[in-house]
Structure formats: structure tokens, C-alpha cells
Amino acid sequence: MLVVGIILFAFGIMLSIVLHEFGHMKVAQWSGMKVRRFFVGFGPTVWSTNRGGIEYGLKAVPLGGFCDIAGMTAYDELSPEDEPRAMWRQAWWKRVAVLLAGPAMNILLAVALFYGVALGWGLVNRDVQPIPTDRVAAVVGDTCAAGQAGEPACGPGLGPAGAAGILPGDRIIAVDGVPVSSWADLSEEVAGLPGETVPVVVARGGEETTTTATLTSSTVDGQERGALGVRLSDEGIPQEILDDPAYQTVNTYDVWSAVPATIAFTGDMVDATVQGLISFPSKIPAVAASIFGAERAEDSPVSVVGASHIGGQAAEQGAWWLFVLFLAGLNLFLGAFNLVPLTPFDGGHVAVVFYEKIRDALRRLRGLAPGGPADYEKLAPVTMTVFVLLIGVSAIVITADFVNPILLTG
Length: 410
Hints:
Strand order of the largest sheet: 7-6-8-9
Mean pLDDT: 84
Structural class: alpha+beta
Number of helices: 10
Largest sheet: 4 strands, antiparallel
């Protein structure tokens, strides 16, 4: 199932790219521009056909695609009949609309997939309330601890909770003198006391009892965290608490209620995507280090190879909601990434259009004629620098995805 999932996710990425280029093409056609070619992939041409004056085709390496619009810059060689339909000759707002259409398709696809997740599986409850501890049978009966030879041993009485005499059905009231009123409170308190011996107050049969527990210590994300050896249980929780939406970690929706939920969820994802873009450069050194054996963070950048592998793992685990959610998040990132105001990204070309508008407005104030199309040759050093950086970063991330891939837990 892993291979099937990888193939399906790779197909989803390819479809996302096709829809991105399709957005450029359709808006260009609606704007009166000449579209010459529409290809999926790069490299040698495998297949092509000509329909309606447009050459459609498939390249040997299906890891991208392009839509060739005549006259994207004034340096484009054009046939006499294509001259009037050159992109650079069109109104500024038409050019901006064409350039934004590609990222817009990725963003719209992401929203559609978020909506599908909301309907099919539900979305994470952003305002979930912790279930009160006094409603929870929170203790694990059979806990585990390290044996004499370092091997794990499991059974009654082992582990911090068992050794302290805490029983299933007990309610944790306080840890180290700090009252806890929710599972979140309990987790936070014991996490900050790795390896320490602390008093624990429990309620049992209407009476409170104080015992002493020596918390275990483990390293999570580079930090030491303590554990008591208890878990959340549904036992003893009134049904009205279990059914209350305020306590649900995942909310389910119908066709109509999913709309505002999707909008709110998309807003959260947009914020996370922007933060991810901002932090993207700072994460590359750690990705490079992971090639040589360093631990790789779960939120590190991935290539098409890594994204497909993660999608394949989600499919293998039967977590199709995660498969769809990850594909949606990837589309949101692709849409946002293409809006970066540097050539050769779409956002860079949009920035050029606005530069021309501002420049011409200033020229009019001085009684001068418009300055004509921007000189893209002056942008060549910037474009080449960005291109080389992209190639370098891609090589690093792809290598890391093969050598030290991100693995889903579950």
C-alpha cells in the first residue's frame, strides 16, 4: 500500500501543477492573449498534439509543467499575427490576472480539499476544552518500566503510577503541591519534573489520598520530559461530557456547516504557511545536516519525493484524511511560494507589472511618455541567482528525502 500511496500522491502533485498552469492558460485566453504551448513535465517531449492553435504535450520528467504565453516579455520572438496578442502589450490588470491565476488555482484546490476533509472526516477543533480531570479515570493499570537488563518489562505495580499505588479509576487532584483540574494541566505539570520524586494527591472512593511517585524521564524534541504513567480514559465520564462539542478534538460537519469551518481552518493554515515561508531559509542547514546522520525535524522542508513518501505512509496507515490534508497544505504552500515577489516566480512578474505602473505614473507627473515594458535583462542576475539557489536547495532537500526521510508515527 505504501507504493500505491506514493504513486497516488505523486499523481496528486502532478494534477496540482497541471491545474496551476491551466489557470494561467484559461485567464490568458479570456484576456485575448496567445497561448502557444501547454506541457506537463520537463525535458524531452514524449507526446504532443496541436489543438486550436495550442500545442499540448507531455515531457519525459513529469515533475512540473509550463504554459507558454506569447510575449511574456518584449524580448519574445513573435510571429506578425501574434504581435497584437502579446502578453506585454495587454492592460496591466489583465497581465496581473493571468499571473495570479496559477497560484489562485492552487489555493482554491487547497480550500476544496479542506472542505472535503471537513465533510469526510471532520476538522480539528481549534477551541477544544480539556475534559475535567474529576470526570476521568486517568490511571493506566499495567505500566512499563526498564527491567534489570535494560529490557522493558510490563505488569501491575511497575512504573511511577503503579509503584506509587495509584489505581485505575483514581482521579489526580494535585502533583508536587500544584492542583490540576484537567488532563492538560496534569501533562504540563509532570512534564516539567523529569526524574523527580513528588507527592501526588488522588481521589478514590470519595476520599483523598497522598502518595509519592518518582517520575520517569525521557527526551522529546531535545527536551527532557517527565511522565507519571497514566493515560486519559473514557471510563466514568458522563455521556453528556463525551457528546459536548466543546470537548471534542475533532468536529464533524454537514454540507452547510462545513463552509464556515473550512474558511476558519483555511485562515489558520494560511497563517501557518506564511510562517513556514518565513522560516524556510533557516531550516535548510538542518536539512543538510540530516543527510549526514543528524536527526531530521518533522516540520523540515520536503521535496516532491519527500511529500510523496509522506503521502504514501499516510495511505499505508489508512489515514486518508491525512493524505488529503497534506496534499491540500502542499497546494497552499505552492500557491504562496509562487507569490514571492522575485523572478522567476509569478509574484516576481506581478511586481514588475506594478513597477511599470508606478514608474509611468511618476513619468506622467513629469510630463513624460510611458517608459514601455520593463527591461528583463536587468533582472537577469536576480533571476539567475534565485534559480541557482532553487536548484541548490532542491538538491539538498531531495537528497535528504532519500537518505533521511520524514517518517510518520502511528
